[in-house]
Amino acid sequence: MTEQQGSAKTGFSYSVSARVAAPAARVWEAWTTPEQYVQWFGAKPGSVALDVRPGGAWKATLVFPDGTEFPLTGSYVEVEQPRRLVMSMDVPGAEPGIMVADFADAAEGGEAGTDVTLSQTSPTAEERDQSKQGSEMLLQQLSAYLG
Hints:
This protein is α+β, with helices and mostly antiparallel strands. The protein has a single domain, classed as Alpha-D-Glucose-1,6-Bisphosphate, Chain A, domain 4. It contains 3 helices and 8 strands. It has helices at residues 24-32, 34-41, 125-146, and strands at residues 2-8, 11-20, 49-50, 57-63, 69-80, 84-89, 97-105, 114-122. The two termini are 15 Å apart.
């Protein structure tokens, strides 16, 4: 997994990447099909709704190992199948944000697969660090699911 982080005048940004052992079309399906999304995202069954089109809404309720539920909602800002999703995110206790998910064919090392990069800008360093940790967890779960 690779990462970058920085501080911009408009907020605190990060970018994390991982190579997933699946073609971009398969990664896209995992992100945009509720039945697949619930299997790797850590969402409560029945809580996922994905209207994958610009302006379409999405929602999912994360369930942590201790049983704590964490509702997430947002909308799709940009949809470029199978390469890019830009989503607004409303997270309890945090300012609304934008997450960018890019899916690129693996080009280095002779490995097949897709390089998945998640990027986000947050208003505070603390929110950035929490979001970055969540994105790293998502990449690990996605890799395990598509393994």
